[in-house]
What does this fold into?
Amino acid sequence: MADHPERRVPTLMDVADRAGVSAQTVSRVVNGQGPVAARTRARVMDAIGELNYVPNRLARGLARQRSLSIGFATNDISLHAPSQLASAIEGAARQAGYSLIVTIVAGYGLAPVTHALRALRERQVDGALINASLSPGDAHEITARFPDLPCMFMDVPPSAGVPGALLDQALGARLGADHLLNLGHTRIACIDAPQGAVAEQARLRGWEDTLAARGLSLVARAAGDWSPASGYAATQTLLAGGVPFTGLLVANDQMAVGALRALWERGVNVPADVSVVGYDDTAESALLIPPLTTVRQDFPLLGRRAFAHLHALLRSETHPPTLSTPELVVRASTAPPPGPERQDVQAALRTLMAALTRP
Amino acid sequence: MADHPERRVPTLMDVADRAGVSAQTVSRVVNGQGPVAARTRARVMDAIGELNYVPNRLARGLARQRSLSIGFATNDISLHAPSQLASAIEGAARQAGYSLIVTIVAGYGLAPVTHALRALRERQVDGALINASLSPGDAHEITARFPDLPCMFMDVPPSAGVPGALLDQALGARLGADHLLNLGHTRIACIDAPQGAVAEQARLRGWEDTLAARGLSLVARAAGDWSPASGYAATQTLLAGGVPFTGLLVANDQMAVGALRALWERGVNVPADVSVVGYDDTAESALLIPPLTTVRQDFPLLGRRAFAHLHALLRSETHPPTLSTPELVVRASTAPPPGPERQDVQAALRTLMAALTRP
DNA sequence: ACACGAAGTGTTAGCCTTAACATATGGCCG
DNA sequence: CGGCCATATGTTAAGGCTAACACTTCGTGT
It folds into this structure.
């Protein structure tokens, strides 16, 4: 790769020699601390420019005993939430002079997270942000196993007593369920997320509790894996189950896309026959057919906050856990439940329409 | 943070003392190279376990002159393509013993990439993967400015003569355009991506060239920014433009979601009145209403390949640029163009239907 | 019995930077 | 004009690890 086999990348010492000063002086100039005469500084800057010197962060990290890098351990980063978080965290970290090392945690539970953190500790990260569906117990275990590694848990309930910044899943779930209840729905089904995902548990419990407060419970339930295809399959399962429902709570918007499709295929009109509530408010949601009523989660804000808290932690300032409040975005996928007679008319109309519009 | 203020994290030397051997021997055990007697190895392993020793990668990187980390410089990682790539690259890198440092490149062009690579070079990354809409000229400039940093350009045409692994944008664009042409469309509009995005240029040119080969050209054109909302707005612009079209080529599936919505709102039936072709084949696309005909891009494959090539490069094996071929996925959003009379009937039907189904 | 090579281990000298301390220079005060 | 302080710079010793080399201790062939 090297055009000039003899040429090494220049070091601090090379700059020092060229500028006719000691290494320490160059270090002072580079880091902008300690007194340096204006003339000297200028000479050093010139030498840096001429040699195209770049400081070596490994060596600096070794000498300073802090690497100025942080780790982000997360579930599959190609999903909506992790990628949004990564984007926000990277931005905040870079601005504060930190680099971001991303490690993907495969699967749920303690073991894969432990593995990921071990790798991050090898890299001497100054701290870690963890978004990996940990239970409060797991989070405590992590802090015990890595006492020297400041960690922020991004999806652990605040009650856990570990540093955390998270979205209030329970509230979000309640917002969605209450919305359906207030519209008059009583037969409500749900599509939740993979077992083991903490967000899933919190949402499911939030739904159940909200319904229970009105003396109701979920009439049917199916599980997906966050993907649109799984939402589609889950909805088919629900429809095939024979339990009638007029409201459908879905654990994320991507699965809701599949749900809308499955309902559409069966000739079930949304929202006239069934109301659908999503979760996340992805960029697509406002433009679906129909536009999706959903619970907005501000992931960029969460990401920035999480980094800010970790950053404070690194400077030994303690921060209480933060809870960001999601908000309900009402769009056209929800409406009052249909009366029984109306339901028949709708079905007939749809059949007619389908016949007419077919080429 | 430290429970026991006196306790440092154990070093190689601590392990050596405990096992009663020299540091070098511990190093040999940890790295599994060089001859070590079975008994000695066992003693060292025990000491490592007892102390919970973790090697310090900064120090190792400094001593070995390679950090076993690579950089990924990309546009906003919350978008579809970058997040898919990041996921695949991280997996491949981790498996090969490399950590991944992610840097987000803000904006298009040479300057922000240079900035990002400088930061990565500070971190002593062994190589970098770049997905940042660079022109071939920019790519050459980068290799000139960073002669010691092996780079893979993930979105630079192979003709550029720089190491690259990319998806054949021109072919993908051709597939989509040919599909519409073969269905009989002659009035084709497009929604392309931000100026400066290389993918955009390649796709736009591919569309134009393909149409030109049949003596046609795009009848209208609007630009988006990859987001569903921008696709929606662009489609509204096209519809308001007054230039009739029966085929619509969209530069990604997310914008196609917005396009489908805008057409639906205007009562334009897809595919009876207008056929829509997307690009990417996101997880949602098969489940939209109607399911979207699109050009599938295998980003996970691209990510793995890109890393494999970089890895080869790091071992001084030269690899020719690779071109992955996208493939057309035909779904229900495309059909032959309507005859003029049919178009009126459709419109009337839609009006009727909308009136009937309104509660 | 001797040289020889291989296996196993230790020693030394870096890798590049910074913290801590040491030194030199100049200005100012009494 | 000596002494003292602030400013500006240099020196030394880590920081944790590994490459390169040096040194033992064997077993082997002759």
About this structure: Chain B touches chain A through 69 residues (CB under 8 Å). Confidence is low (pLDDT under 50) at residues 1-6 of chain B. Residues 21-25, 28, 34-37, 40, 59, 61-65 of chain B lie near DNA strand C (CB under 10 Å from a C1'). The CA atoms of residues 278 and 294 of chain B lie 4 Å apart.
